[in-house]
């Protein structure tokens, strides 16, 4: 009589095809040996050809099962009860190029993550190991039916994302920071929640006869006008969402531009310190003037947060947020090593309280959180390669943050941002709630 074969372990993840901000509802292992040491492993190849991985250690129960959504991870690249730990703890595999940052470029394709199950506790050497089970999951930034439209209207360069249906929809102008280029993944994800979203390219410098120039405020006014005039947009329900330089521009334009009157603002990792009523070029000039305050850590990574410190008392050197007329959500990483976001938020609160518009301000401040606050389940980037917009110099910039806290802040701030947008764009007195997410 032949020996009875051991059952083959089974790995299940649902949904296996989902938006990038969607949690797994099922992540389970079945038919493993009872009380067995097991490793779940995630592998992702980026669009740049770099491999990223994460792993978690679990012990199966008496029935040979593990519920990753409920059970404690006892080691690996994360620990505790962390259903999405295999995503937010992704890191470059050993031997990779240094100082990488993982960002989705082609939002028309998913991030494909291969998840595998291994006998024993392991943290390395996965290519040489034969898994007990494996499967692939897809993480999308673009929901079905959302249209991507390249935009060059009115001299404005960007990408417009349109939710399915005739609208009119509330809209969001999305502006990234000093790294330049057209970054689409956050805008695509916002549009997947029911907002027309314009990812704006505004950092590309113009070079003529050896002279470098940046866009003026009229460029942002044109972008805002493009959104207002779009037939699927409700023109009186437009928000601006900005990170870093994008946050600074959002604050300045909302106070001083007669053509930009947003319904609300969301500012990640930004500051109001800039010449009052100035332009993007003026902000860069302020940075250049204070470049002597640049610091370096023990690994020679650039720390730029002191370029805007101390927060000036001179009102001509900062946006007069006391004049702001719309709700403002500030999202602050308390370990931001790139901008003085925490100090700026405190000063803005004092200014707005003194002016009587403090009721318009909400602040989300997160300990051990750095500058690059991405959508949820994105890997934490503490430092990365960076090229300046004007001079094209290359640095390794320290952004800050500690991985578990930073990734928790990304998740918490994302859902609170969407709630803030819905509250102020969808449920006001002029809103048509049926066209809102």
UniProtKB/TrEMBL annotation:
Record-linked InterPro entries: AB_hydrolase_fold, Acyl-CoA_thioEstase_long-chain, BAAT_C, Thio_Ohase/aa_AcTrfase, Thio_Ohase/BAAT_N
A Pfam family per the record: Bile_Hydr_Trans
Active-site residues, as the UniProt record annotates them: 244 (charge relay system), 336 (charge relay system), 371 (charge relay system)
Transmembrane segments: none
Record-annotated BAAT/Acyl-CoA thioester hydrolase C-terminal domain positions: 218-425
Acyl-CoA thioester hydrolase/bile acid-CoA amino acid N-acetyltransferase domain mapped to chain residues: 28-153
Example GO BP: acyl-CoA metabolic process
Alphabetized GO MF terms: fatty acyl-CoA hydrolase activity
Membership in a protein family: Belongs to the C/M/P thioester hydrolase family.
PANTHER family associated with the record: ACYL-COA THIOESTERASE 17-RELATED (PTHR10824:SF36), ACYL-COENZYME A THIOESTERASE-RELATED (PTHR10824)
Identification of the protein by name: Acyl-coenzyme A thioesterase 3
Organism in which the protein naturally occurs: Merluccius polli (Benguela hake)
């Amino acid at each position: 009589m032949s020996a009875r074969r051991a059952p083959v372990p089974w790995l299940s993840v649902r949904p296996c095809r989902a938006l990038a901000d969607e949690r797994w509802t099922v992540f389970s292992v079945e038919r493993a040996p009872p009380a067995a040491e097991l490793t779940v492993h995630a592998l992702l190849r980026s669009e740049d050809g770099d491999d990223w991985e994460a792993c978690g250690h679990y012990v199966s129960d008496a029935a040979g099962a593990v519920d990753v959504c409920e059970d404690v991870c006892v080691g690996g690249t994360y620990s505790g009860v962390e259903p999405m730990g295999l995503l937010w703890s992704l890191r470059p595999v050993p031997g990779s190029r240094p100082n990488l940052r993982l960002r989705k470029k082609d939002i028309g394709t998913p991030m494909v993550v291969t998840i595998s199950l291994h006998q024993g506790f392991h943290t390395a050497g996965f290519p040489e190991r034969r898994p007990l089970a494996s499967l692939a999951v897809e993480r999308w930034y673009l929901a079905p039916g959302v249209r991507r439209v390249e935009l060059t209207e009115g001299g404005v360069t960007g990408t417009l994302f349109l939710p399915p249906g005739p609208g009119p929809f509330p809209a969001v102008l999305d502006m990234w920071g000093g790294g330049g280029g057209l970054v689409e993944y956050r805008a695509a994800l916002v549009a997947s929640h029911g907002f027309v979203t314009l990812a704006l390219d505004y950092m590309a410098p113009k070079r003529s006869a050896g002279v470098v120039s940046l866009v003026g405020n009229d460029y942002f006014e044109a972008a805002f006008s493009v959104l207002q005039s779009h037939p699927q947009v409700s023109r009186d329900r437009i928000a601006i969402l900005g990170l870093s330089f994008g946050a600074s521009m959002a604050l300045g334009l909302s106070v001083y531009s007669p053509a930009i009157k947003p319904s609300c603002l969301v500012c990640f990792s930004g500051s109001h310190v800039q010449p009052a009523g100035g332009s993007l070029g003026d902000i860069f000039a302020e940075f250049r003037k204070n470049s002597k305050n640049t610091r370096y850590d023990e690994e020679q990574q650039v720390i730029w947060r002191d370029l805007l410190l101390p927060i000036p008392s001179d009102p001509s050197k900062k946006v007069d947020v006391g004049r702001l007329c719309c709700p403002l959500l500030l999202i602050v990483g308390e370990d931001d090593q790139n901008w003085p976001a925490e100090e700026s938020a405190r000063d803005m609160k004092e200014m707005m309280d003194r002016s009587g518009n403090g009721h318009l301000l909400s602040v989300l401040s997160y300990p051990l959180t750095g500058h690059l606050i991405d959508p949820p389940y994105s890997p934490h980037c503490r430092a990365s390669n960076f090229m300046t917009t004007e001079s094209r110099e290359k640095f390794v910039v320290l952004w800050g943050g500690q991985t578990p806290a930073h990734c928790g802040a990304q998740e918490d701030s994302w859902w609170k941002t969407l709630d803030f947008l819905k509250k102020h764009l969808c449920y006001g007195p002029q809103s048509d709630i049926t066209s809102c997410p």
